[in-house]
Amino acid sequence: MVWRIVLLSAVAVLVSGCVTTRGGVDFVSMSQRIGPPKAGQARVVIFREPAYAGLIDQGWDVKLDDTPMGELKTGTFRYADRPAGRHQLSYTEALFPGVSQRDITLSQGRTYFFLVKASDRAKTLNAAQAAGGLTGLVVVSAMTAGDNNPGPLDFIPLEETAAREATAALKLSE
User: Fold this and answer.
1) With 50 as the cut, is the pLDDT of residue 154 above it?
2) Is the pTM for the entire model greater than 0.85?
3) Does 115 reside within a domain?
Protein backbone atom coordinates (compact mmCIF):
# COMPACT_ATOMS: atom_id res chain seq x y z
CA MET A 1 0.00 0.00 0.00
CA VAL A 2 2.77 2.45 0.90
CA TRP A 3 4.64 1.75 -2.35
CA ARG A 4 1.48 2.70 -4.30
CA ILE A 5 1.30 6.06 -2.57
CA VAL A 6 5.00 6.68 -3.24
CA LEU A 7 4.62 5.64 -6.89
CA LEU A 8 1.52 7.79 -7.43
CA SER A 9 3.22 10.76 -5.75
CA ALA A 10 6.24 10.39 -8.03
CA VAL A 11 4.02 10.23 -11.11
CA ALA A 12 2.09 13.31 -9.96
CA VAL A 13 5.33 15.28 -9.56
CA LEU A 14 6.55 14.24 -13.01
CA VAL A 15 3.25 15.03 -14.72
CA SER A 16 2.85 18.38 -13.00
CA GLY A 17 6.25 19.40 -14.35
CA CYS A 18 4.93 18.92 -17.89
CA VAL A 19 2.19 21.52 -17.60
CA THR A 20 4.27 24.43 -16.44
CA THR A 21 4.66 27.41 -18.73
CA ARG A 22 7.96 28.98 -19.61
CA GLY A 23 8.91 32.22 -18.00
CA GLY A 24 10.60 35.05 -19.79
CA VAL A 25 9.48 37.90 -21.98
CA ASP A 26 7.36 37.28 -25.08
CA PHE A 27 8.63 38.12 -28.57
CA VAL A 28 6.42 41.17 -29.15
CA SER A 29 7.44 42.79 -25.84
CA MET A 30 11.10 42.05 -26.48
CA SER A 31 10.92 43.56 -29.99
CA GLN A 32 9.27 46.73 -28.69
CA ARG A 33 11.74 47.07 -25.84
CA ILE A 34 14.97 46.68 -27.81
CA GLY A 35 13.78 48.13 -31.13
CA PRO A 36 15.23 47.28 -34.53
CA PRO A 37 18.84 46.19 -35.07
CA LYS A 38 21.44 48.96 -34.81
CA ALA A 39 22.91 50.54 -37.95
CA GLY A 40 24.94 48.04 -39.95
CA GLN A 41 23.44 45.11 -38.03
CA ALA A 42 20.81 42.45 -38.72
CA ARG A 43 18.89 40.29 -36.26
CA VAL A 44 18.73 36.49 -36.32
CA VAL A 45 15.83 34.91 -34.42
CA ILE A 46 15.67 31.16 -33.88
CA PHE A 47 12.66 29.47 -32.32
CA ARG A 48 11.05 26.15 -31.47
CA GLU A 49 7.33 25.64 -31.75
CA PRO A 50 5.29 24.89 -28.63
CA ALA A 51 4.79 21.14 -28.36
CA TYR A 52 5.03 18.30 -25.90
CA ALA A 53 8.72 18.03 -25.12
CA GLY A 54 8.61 14.84 -23.08
CA LEU A 55 9.57 14.56 -19.45
CA ILE A 56 12.88 16.28 -20.07
CA ASP A 57 12.99 19.21 -22.48
CA GLN A 58 16.50 19.04 -23.81
CA GLY A 59 17.57 22.49 -24.90
CA TRP A 60 19.42 22.83 -28.18
CA ASP A 61 22.56 24.95 -27.96
CA VAL A 62 22.46 26.45 -31.46
CA LYS A 63 25.50 28.48 -32.46
CA LEU A 64 25.75 31.52 -34.68
CA ASP A 65 29.28 31.86 -36.05
CA ASP A 66 30.50 29.32 -33.46
CA THR A 67 29.10 31.47 -30.63
CA PRO A 68 26.34 29.82 -28.55
CA MET A 69 23.01 31.64 -28.72
CA GLY A 70 21.87 29.88 -25.53
CA GLU A 71 19.66 26.87 -24.88
CA LEU A 72 16.64 26.79 -27.17
CA LYS A 73 13.82 24.93 -25.45
CA THR A 74 10.39 23.96 -26.71
CA GLY A 75 8.11 26.99 -27.17
CA THR A 76 10.91 29.53 -26.83
CA PHE A 77 13.08 31.79 -28.98
CA ARG A 78 16.59 33.24 -28.91
CA TYR A 79 18.03 36.10 -30.90
CA ALA A 80 21.35 37.71 -31.75
CA ASP A 81 22.35 40.82 -33.69
CA ARG A 82 25.24 40.51 -36.14
CA PRO A 83 26.88 42.73 -38.76
CA ALA A 84 25.50 42.46 -42.28
CA GLY A 85 27.28 39.78 -44.32
CA ARG A 86 27.80 36.02 -44.34
CA HIS A 87 27.20 33.97 -41.19
CA GLN A 88 26.49 30.38 -40.19
CA LEU A 89 23.99 28.68 -37.88
CA SER A 90 25.20 25.33 -36.54
CA TYR A 91 24.42 22.61 -34.05
CA THR A 92 26.16 19.43 -32.93
CA GLU A 93 24.88 16.78 -30.59
CA ALA A 94 26.94 14.33 -28.58
CA LEU A 95 26.88 10.84 -30.09
CA PHE A 96 25.02 12.04 -33.19
CA PRO A 97 26.85 11.34 -36.46
CA GLY A 98 26.75 14.69 -38.25
CA VAL A 99 26.56 18.46 -37.90
CA SER A 100 23.65 20.75 -38.78
CA GLN A 101 24.78 23.88 -40.62
CA ARG A 102 23.06 26.65 -42.54
CA ASP A 103 24.96 29.44 -44.23
CA ILE A 104 23.08 32.75 -44.26
CA THR A 105 23.66 36.20 -45.70
CA LEU A 106 22.30 39.08 -43.65
CA SER A 107 21.32 42.55 -44.85
CA GLN A 108 21.50 45.47 -42.45
CA GLY A 109 18.32 46.48 -40.67
CA ARG A 110 16.50 43.20 -41.37
CA THR A 111 15.33 40.47 -39.01
CA TYR A 112 15.71 36.85 -40.13
CA PHE A 113 13.62 34.08 -38.59
CA PHE A 114 14.50 30.39 -38.47
CA LEU A 115 12.24 27.64 -37.19
CA VAL A 116 14.45 24.98 -35.61
CA LYS A 117 13.18 21.39 -35.81
CA ALA A 118 14.58 17.90 -35.48
CA SER A 119 15.74 16.75 -38.91
CA ASP A 120 14.19 13.77 -40.68
CA ARG A 121 17.51 11.97 -40.22
CA ALA A 122 17.44 12.59 -36.46
CA LYS A 123 13.88 11.29 -36.23
CA THR A 124 14.85 8.16 -38.20
CA LEU A 125 17.98 7.55 -36.11
CA ASN A 126 16.11 8.05 -32.82
CA ALA A 127 13.38 5.63 -33.88
CA ALA A 128 15.96 3.06 -35.00
CA GLN A 129 17.85 3.38 -31.74
CA ALA A 130 14.66 2.94 -29.73
CA ALA A 131 13.68 -0.10 -31.76
CA GLY A 132 17.03 -1.78 -32.24
CA GLY A 133 19.42 -0.31 -29.71
CA LEU A 134 22.94 0.47 -30.88
CA THR A 135 22.69 -2.07 -33.70
CA GLY A 136 19.68 -0.26 -35.17
CA LEU A 137 21.46 3.07 -34.80
CA VAL A 138 24.54 1.86 -36.69
CA VAL A 139 22.51 0.29 -39.51
CA VAL A 140 20.25 3.32 -40.06
CA SER A 141 23.19 5.72 -39.67
CA ALA A 142 24.93 3.95 -42.54
CA MET A 143 21.73 3.97 -44.61
CA THR A 144 21.13 7.72 -44.12
CA ALA A 145 24.75 8.82 -44.59
CA GLY A 146 23.99 10.47 -47.97
CA ASP A 147 21.19 12.75 -46.68
CA ASN A 148 21.38 16.45 -47.61
CA ASN A 149 21.43 17.39 -43.93
CA PRO A 150 23.69 15.08 -41.96
CA GLY A 151 22.92 16.85 -38.68
CA PRO A 152 20.25 16.51 -36.01
CA LEU A 153 18.42 19.81 -36.70
CA ASP A 154 16.91 21.71 -39.62
CA PHE A 155 17.02 25.52 -39.74
CA ILE A 156 13.92 26.51 -41.72
CA PRO A 157 13.76 30.15 -42.86
CA LEU A 158 10.37 31.85 -42.54
CA GLU A 159 9.08 35.06 -44.07
CA GLU A 160 8.72 37.86 -41.55
CA THR A 161 4.89 38.01 -41.47
CA ALA A 162 4.48 34.27 -40.86
CA ALA A 163 7.37 34.23 -38.41
CA ARG A 164 6.00 37.10 -36.33
CA GLU A 165 2.69 35.28 -36.01
CA ALA A 166 4.46 32.05 -35.07
CA THR A 167 6.66 33.74 -32.47
CA ALA A 168 4.08 36.11 -30.95
CA ALA A 169 3.25 33.81 -28.03
CA LEU A 170 6.74 32.36 -27.53
CA LYS A 171 8.95 33.29 -24.59
CA LEU A 172 12.61 34.20 -24.53
CA SER A 173 14.45 31.06 -23.45
CA GLU A 174 15.92 31.46 -19.98
Assistant:
1) yes
2) no
3) yes
